[in-house]
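chain below, 405 aa
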Amino acid sequence: MLKQITSLLGLVLAIGFLVQCTDDEPEIKITSLTFDTASVEVTEGTTVDLNDYLIVEGEDANQAIVTFTTSNDEVFTVSGVVLSAVGVGTAQIVATEANTDLTANIDVTVIPKVVAVTGISLDKTEAELKVGEELQLTATIAPEDATEKGVIWIVSFPSDGSTSEDVPTDIATVSEAGLVTAKALGDVVVTAKTLDGEFTANISISITNQLVTSLTITPGSFSVNVGETQQLEATAEPANATNKEVTWSIEKSSSNCRSLASEPVYATIDQNGLVTGVENQGCYELTVVATSVDGPSASATFDVIQLVTSLSVFDGDTEVGDAIENCDDIQFSVVVSPPNASDQSVTWSIEENDAFEVDQTGLVSHKEGYIFTDDVSVTVTVTANDESGISTAFQNNFTLYGECH
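prediction:
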């Protein structure tokens, strides 16, 4: 029994000693935990020792136990004191001291890694263009994931490497997107130069004239009045043809002109395509021809029209306007002037009345069964059928009594 008490007393004394030893353990003295900057910027794919930025102050600073945590492990991860930048973005690191629960934080921004350009190539090294044509060039930067893919485009002469400022813009131009436009005959070199590293790639371009392949005259057929004009237009294909100049001429043939002599001149045309009607006697369906300096030609047919200038009406021995005292029909005739008027047809008409009518030969007739009780006066009109608008009206007095049959 005594032995058991002695053992228990020893246990109590041992526990008391341990408690006394724990109470007597010295306190870890740490007064502050900070980072020497509020934020830091690192490059994607790199690592950072966080101790390089951490400041621990106090007598026992060397005994500090610090852990680090991240607010976004998709931007960076932390292993011990090493931060690994894994994605572009911004997050916060929190440092915690285990003995004191002091904390500090720092903002970390991860920027994209810089991949240097190692070269450049073009999708073509040689090309031929016609004047007016365009060529879109494509530049490929190496490596594919290079950070700076900017390119400067330059046009130069192949002989001396002059800069684009020395090349007349009427030969070729290149846009900021690499679109080349051929302006005139000649040879040029287009260069693509990288902004990073100034690597270059070239293409030699030969520019040739675009020939006219066909012509069209507008209008394709027409009429022109004597003394008047008609403007013609010659359209060249393709639209980017280098030289669209044409020469104009008028042709006639024995099948549609009575005379092939140099006179009379039926129509003239100047080198701007302006046709002037001169004379129409004995000639119709003339041909105007436009001929390209590159060879192709086109033609259009036309007539020269002489409009009517006056109409004269007569009735044999009876003067127009005389009183007529019988029931006979009266045949009027018309003389068209000038004699070479292209369209000599006319239209006859009579003012509305109950006694007379006129047909298209100029025959004025009494209406059957009409009883004349007094003098009757009627007006007959003859009108040219062409575009002149010429007409003549005349009045006759009919002295009749009774009924005409």
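The chain has four domains: 32-111, 119-208, 214-305, 310-403. Residues 353 and 378 are 8 Å apart (CA to CA).
thats it, cya
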